[in-house]
Protein backbone atom coordinates (compact mmCIF):
# COMPACT_ATOMS: atom_id res chain seq x y z
CA UNK A 1 0.00 0.00 0.00
CA UNK A 2 1.19 3.48 -0.90
CA UNK A 3 0.27 6.68 0.91
CA UNK A 4 -1.47 9.43 -1.05
CA UNK A 5 -2.04 12.97 0.22
CA UNK A 6 -5.22 14.60 -1.14
CA UNK A 7 -5.74 18.35 -0.73
CA UNK A 8 -8.56 19.25 -3.13
CA UNK A 9 -11.68 17.74 -4.62
CA UNK A 10 -10.81 14.22 -3.41
CA UNK A 11 -11.07 15.18 0.28
CA UNK A 12 -14.03 14.13 2.41
CA UNK A 13 -17.05 16.31 1.65
CA UNK A 14 -15.66 17.49 -1.69
CA UNK A 15 -17.08 16.79 -5.17
CA UNK A 16 -14.78 13.91 -6.20
CA UNK A 17 -14.37 12.12 -2.86
CA UNK A 18 -16.73 9.37 -4.00
CA UNK A 19 -14.07 7.90 -6.33
CA UNK A 20 -11.96 6.95 -3.30
CA UNK A 21 -14.92 5.01 -1.91
CA UNK A 22 -15.71 2.97 -5.03
CA UNK A 23 -14.21 -0.49 -4.57
CA UNK A 24 -14.22 -1.05 -8.34
CA UNK A 25 -11.31 1.43 -8.47
CA UNK A 26 -9.29 -0.41 -5.83
CA UNK A 27 -8.82 0.13 -2.13
CA UNK A 28 -8.30 3.39 -0.22
CA UNK A 29 -8.12 3.51 3.58
CA UNK A 30 -8.20 6.84 5.43
CA UNK A 31 -5.08 7.20 7.60
CA UNK A 32 -5.53 10.71 8.98
CA UNK A 33 -5.47 14.42 8.45
CA UNK A 34 -2.19 16.09 7.74
CA UNK A 35 -0.35 19.12 6.49
CA UNK A 36 2.63 19.38 4.17
CA UNK A 37 5.87 19.88 6.09
CA UNK A 38 7.09 22.34 3.46
CA UNK A 39 4.94 25.16 2.15
CA UNK A 40 3.55 24.91 -1.39
CA UNK A 41 1.39 27.26 -3.46
CA UNK A 42 -2.15 25.87 -3.52
CA UNK A 43 -4.11 27.89 -6.06
CA UNK A 44 -7.55 27.68 -7.65
CA UNK A 45 -7.00 28.07 -11.36
CA UNK A 46 -8.42 27.78 -14.84
CA UNK A 47 -11.93 28.11 -16.23
CA UNK A 48 -13.14 25.21 -14.06
CA UNK A 49 -11.68 26.55 -10.78
CA UNK A 50 -9.60 23.45 -10.15
CA UNK A 51 -7.36 23.34 -7.06
CA UNK A 52 -3.71 22.99 -8.09
CA UNK A 53 -0.72 22.36 -5.88
CA UNK A 54 2.13 24.01 -7.76
CA UNK A 55 5.34 22.02 -7.50
CA UNK A 56 7.27 24.89 -5.91
CA UNK A 57 8.39 23.59 -2.49
CA UNK A 58 9.32 26.33 -0.06
CA UNK A 59 6.79 28.83 -1.45
CA UNK A 60 3.20 29.34 -0.39
CA UNK A 61 1.66 27.74 2.70
CA UNK A 62 1.67 24.43 4.51
CA UNK A 63 -1.29 22.73 2.84
CA UNK A 64 -3.91 20.76 4.76
CA UNK A 65 -5.36 17.51 3.45
CA UNK A 66 -6.04 13.83 4.06
CA UNK A 67 -3.76 10.82 3.89
CA UNK A 68 -4.99 7.55 2.38
CA UNK A 69 -3.28 4.19 2.06
CA UNK A 70 -4.10 2.93 -1.43
CA UNK A 71 -3.44 -0.31 -3.27
CA UNK A 72 -1.80 -0.49 -6.69
CA UNK A 73 -5.18 -0.66 -8.48
CA UNK A 74 -6.38 2.57 -6.81
CA UNK A 75 -3.06 4.27 -7.51
CA UNK A 76 -3.36 3.42 -11.22
CA UNK A 77 -6.97 4.65 -11.18
CA UNK A 78 -5.94 7.94 -9.51
CA UNK A 79 -3.18 8.44 -12.08
CA UNK A 80 -5.79 8.21 -14.82
CA UNK A 81 -8.40 10.24 -12.91
CA UNK A 82 -5.89 13.03 -12.26
CA UNK A 83 -4.67 13.05 -15.86
CA UNK A 84 -1.17 12.02 -14.84
CA UNK A 85 1.32 12.90 -16.23
CA UNK A 86 -0.26 15.59 -18.45
CA UNK A 87 -2.50 17.59 -16.10
CA UNK A 88 -0.87 16.57 -12.81
CA UNK A 89 2.35 14.82 -11.97
CA UNK A 90 2.55 12.27 -9.16
CA UNK A 91 5.38 13.41 -6.91
CA UNK A 92 6.38 12.81 -3.29
CA UNK A 93 5.75 15.15 -0.40
CA UNK A 94 6.42 14.88 3.33
CA UNK A 95 3.25 15.20 5.40
CA UNK A 96 2.97 15.79 9.15
CA UNK A 97 0.08 13.57 10.25
CA UNK A 98 -2.13 15.04 12.97
CA UNK A 99 -2.18 13.09 16.21
CA UNK A 100 0.49 10.65 15.01
CA UNK A 101 3.43 12.78 16.07
CA UNK A 102 5.33 11.93 12.93
CA UNK A 103 5.61 12.37 9.20
CA UNK A 104 4.87 10.21 6.17
CA UNK A 105 6.22 10.25 2.65
CA UNK A 106 3.14 10.46 0.45
CA UNK A 107 2.38 10.68 -3.22
CA UNK A 108 0.63 13.88 -4.21
CA UNK A 109 -0.75 15.07 -7.52
CA UNK A 110 0.97 18.39 -8.13
CA UNK A 111 1.35 20.64 -11.14
CA UNK A 112 4.81 21.27 -12.58
CA UNK A 113 3.74 22.95 -15.82
CA UNK A 114 1.32 25.86 -15.65
CA UNK A 115 0.82 29.38 -16.96
CA UNK A 116 3.25 31.78 -15.24
CA UNK A 117 0.40 33.94 -13.89
CA UNK A 118 -0.76 31.07 -11.63
CA UNK A 119 2.17 31.82 -9.32
CA UNK A 120 0.53 35.20 -8.61
CA UNK A 121 -2.91 33.80 -7.72
CA UNK A 122 -3.94 33.78 -4.04
CA UNK A 123 -2.40 30.91 -2.07
CA UNK A 124 -4.65 28.74 0.10
CA UNK A 125 -3.75 26.41 2.95
CA UNK A 126 -7.00 24.42 2.93
CA UNK A 127 -9.28 23.86 -0.08
CA UNK A 128 -13.06 23.75 0.07
CA UNK A 129 -15.07 23.80 -3.16
CA UNK A 130 -17.69 25.95 -1.40
CA UNK A 131 -15.13 28.14 0.40
CA UNK A 132 -15.09 31.88 0.97
CA UNK A 133 -12.91 32.30 -2.12
CA UNK A 134 -16.16 32.22 -4.17
CA UNK A 135 -14.59 30.18 -6.98
CA UNK A 136 -17.02 27.34 -7.57
CA UNK A 137 -15.52 24.11 -8.88
CA UNK A 138 -16.97 22.86 -12.15
CA UNK A 139 -17.55 19.09 -11.73
CA UNK A 140 -16.60 16.74 -14.55
CA UNK A 141 -20.26 15.87 -15.11
CA UNK A 142 -21.10 19.48 -16.04
CA UNK A 143 -18.14 20.09 -18.38
TrEMBL record:
Keywords (A to Z) from UniProt: Lyase
For this chain's UniProt record, which GO biological process terms are given?
modified amino acid catabolic process
Looking at the record, the residues that make up the Gamma-glutamylcyclotransferase AIG2-like domain are 4-128
The entry lists its GO molecular-function terms as: gamma-glutamylaminecyclotransferase activity
Catalytic residues (positions) = 82
**According to the lineage, what is the superkingdom?**
Eukaryota
| Similarity comment text for this entry | Belongs to the gamma-glutamylcyclotransferase family.
> What's this protein's name?
Gamma-glutamylaminecyclotransferase
Species this chain originates from: Neophocaena asiaeorientalis asiaeorientalis
Amino acid sequence: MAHVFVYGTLKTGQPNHRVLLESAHGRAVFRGWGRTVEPYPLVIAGQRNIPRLLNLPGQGRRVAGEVYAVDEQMLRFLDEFEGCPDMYQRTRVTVAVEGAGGTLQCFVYSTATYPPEWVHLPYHDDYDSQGEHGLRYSPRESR
